[in-house]
Every structure is written in structure tokens, then in C-alpha cells.
Amino acid sequence: MASVSPTPVLKDELDIVIPTIRNLDFLEMWRPFFQPYHLIIVQDGDPSKTIKVPDGFDYELYNRNDINRILGPKASCISFKDSACRCFGYMVSKKKYIFTIDDDCFVAKDPSGKEINALEQHIKNLLSPSTPFFFNTLYDPYQEGADFVRGYPFSLREGVPTAVSHGLWLNIPDYDAPTQLVKPLERNTRYVDAIMTVPKGTLFPMCGMNLAFNRELIGPAMYFGLMGDGQPIGRYDDMWAGWCTKVICDHLGLGVKTGLPYIWHSKASNPFVNLKKEYKGIYWQEELIPFFQSVALPKDCATVQKCYLELSKQVKAKLGKVDDYFNKLADAMVTWIEAWDELNPSNASAEVANGPKK
Ligand SMILES: O=c1ccn([C@@H]2O[C@H](COP(=O)(O)OP(=O)(O)O[C@H]3O[C@@H](CO)[C@H](O)[C@H]3O)[C@@H](O)[C@H]2O)c(=O)[nH]1
Ligand SMILES: [Mn+2]
């Protein structure tokens, strides 16, 4: 049996970003998997509240006062009283990879009863290529025990660099409020042992609760928008980031994977509160999706920042008439890039090796 090379730990190349409004006792369960890593905790809500972090973890914590101090007026692009604040953690990180997880997500077990090291699986996903140009029916061909099936073009078997690894959830599924309301008792008990590349030209609903990405490849696109306090919408932070990220990945020839790893999502947030946050998004998205499906980025947009700034122009031009919110969001997208480049001057215009796809 060919020996399987161990997954690199990447402990000095990856930060774990956690948005939170509560003490982080959940880390106890993750300790065996997370302890070697540096945590970036983004404390939302009242900055005078103390967030307790279990001993033994290496972390930096930012509350709203810190965000305002560091970004000054640009802090206006970081949401308040919404998990969207987590993207501040992506911006201040100096590492190549990010894993972000919610504080009500715990270690899940696979069908054999083995505890799932979600972080290790995300690292495997990010370090192996994606196949956005041609679908492999045996799922991820780079996984142990799988390969490309007959008829898969050899010219495409090298794949492309993976920018995003989107994990899933056992127990409480990430349903929208209407679905939560009609199916309050539904739990996800299906462990599907598969990882798939989301094909080029296809959007997907990116959930932020169990997500990893290559910050150097796609970080500037991972802006979680204007949500929460003072905003007409919530719970579309990760969706917005996912749609922007996917059209930019398609343009730059980068891959997005979804599937393993699973986490155990323990708490259903209040469906009535969620409905209030989501309802505008539920009808706006019927216009947002055709917009993202029709986005064409110029060939000379060869960096994520250039793509993102071009996208913000198109958001203003085409979505500003849907609601004035999108004019504000388009401006906030520009502020986000300005803040990102201010905090990350070294890679301010890093051209993506693959460059735009024809
Ligand atoms: O005002 C807030 C509320 C919560 N948080 C932190 O964000 C995550 C998610 O919170 P929670 O688990 O309560 O909410 P869910 O509905 O399960 O989250 C899912 O919906 C998405 C909302 O955009 C989210 O990305 C999904 O995971 C927790 O860590 C809270 O502590 C916050 O920072 N501010
Ligand atoms: Mn949750």
C-alpha cells in the first residue's frame, strides 16, 4: 500500500478567525486540533464586555474599539453586530491561509465514530488542485483512493490552484429563515463522503461557519459586506463574499471546493430574528444572482484587487437601481480594498500566477 504523505500542519502559515459575542469555551473541544495555531478573535458587540478564552491558546483579540483605532474612518466598511465582522480578521492576518469557524460549531464524528479534524481536511483541500473546467464524476480525483475517470481529458488533469475550501455541517443545517420556520426539527444526519469543485460559471451559497481559503490567492475578495447594525439586511454576508469570490476565481482560473469536512453545528439561531435580517435579501437575490451570472471582468484585471474594484463599479452601475443600499455597498467595497492594501502593502498588487482565463 503506497504510503500516504502526512498533511502538512501549516501551523505558522494559517490563522483561525473566530467572530464572537460570547466566551470561547467551545475551543476546549477543538483543543487537540487548534492549539498549535494562532487565533484571531473578532469580538463583536459591546467592546467593554470581556471575552474569556481558555488557557493555552495563542491569540490576538480585536473589539470594535480596536477596529476603529486601526482603520479610522475606513472602519465604516466593517459590520457591527453581525458575524460579518469576521472579515476584519482576514485583513489583519499576515498568514497565507485562513480558517474561519463559528463559536457554536463543534467537532463532528464521521460514520466510523472518529472525530473529524476539520482543519486538517481543509488544509488537504487547499493544498490539492481543483477541477473547475471539467466535472469528475468520482468527485475529488486528488483524494486518497480516487482518480480521474475514463474520458477525463489528460490536458486538464493538472487542475488549478484551490482558493477556497467550503465545509459543511451536521445537526443544524445552514437553512434560511423560511426553511427553518417550516422545518424547525430538521437535522442534517447525512454524512456525504465527497469533495467537489464548484464548476466554472456556477455560483454557490457560501456559508461562513466552516470555511477556509488561501488568503494570498483570494483574500481581498473575502469582504463580508455591510450587515447588521444600521443596515437593511443581515445573514447575506457570507453569500455576498461567496458570489464575489466565485466570479473572481472563475476569471483568474482559481478553484473552489465544497464538501468535507463536516463540523457539528449545535445552535439554531432564532428563525424570526433571522427572517427580519434576511427578508430583503430573499427577494433582492433574485436580481443579484443574474447580475453575478452576467459579470464579465476585463482581461487586464489580473489581481484580486483590480477585479474587486471593477466588480464594485458594476455593482454601483447595475444594482444601485435595485436599492440605494448597493450604492453604499459598492463604496464600502472600495473602502475595504483601500484598508486591505493599507494593512497589507507587500501584496497590494500581487498578480495571480495563473492570470485571467481566456
Ligand atoms: O451579532 C453577532 C451575532 C453572532 N456573532 C457570531 O457569529 C457566529 C454566528 O452566529 P450564530 O451561530 O448565532 O448564527 P448562525 O445563524 O448559526 O450563523 C450562520 O449564519 C451566518 C450569518 O451571517 C453565519 O455566517 C453562519 O454561520 C458566532 O460565532 C457568533 O458568536 C457575531 O459575531 N455577531
Ligand atoms: Mn450558528
Automatic annotation (TrEMBL):
Q: Does the keyword Membrane apply?
A: no
Where does the entry annotate site (Required for activity)?
R150, R157
Chief subcellular location: Golgi
Supply the SUPFAM superfamilies for this chain. Nucleotide-diphospho-sugar transferases
Pfam families per the UniProt record, alphabetical? RGP
Question: Glycosylated residues?
Answer: R150
Q: Which reaction does it catalyse?
A: UDP-beta-L-arabinofuranose = UDP-beta-L-arabinopyranose
- Give the Enzyme Commission number: 5.4.99.30
Q: State where the protein is found.
A: Golgi apparatus
Q: Which InterPro entries match?
A: Nucleotide-diphossugar_trans, RGP, RGP_fam
Broad class of enzyme this protein falls into? isomerase
Query: Sorted alphabetically, which keywords does the UniProt record give?
Result: Cell wall biogenesis/degradation, Glycoprotein, Golgi apparatus, Isomerase
* Stated family: Belongs to the RGP family.
Role summary: Probable UDP-L-arabinose mutase involved in the biosynthesis of cell wall non-cellulosic polysaccharides.
Name this polypeptide is given: UDP-arabinopyranose mutase
Species of provenance: Coffea arabica (Arabian coffee)
Name of the gene encoding the protein in the UniProt record: LOC113708811
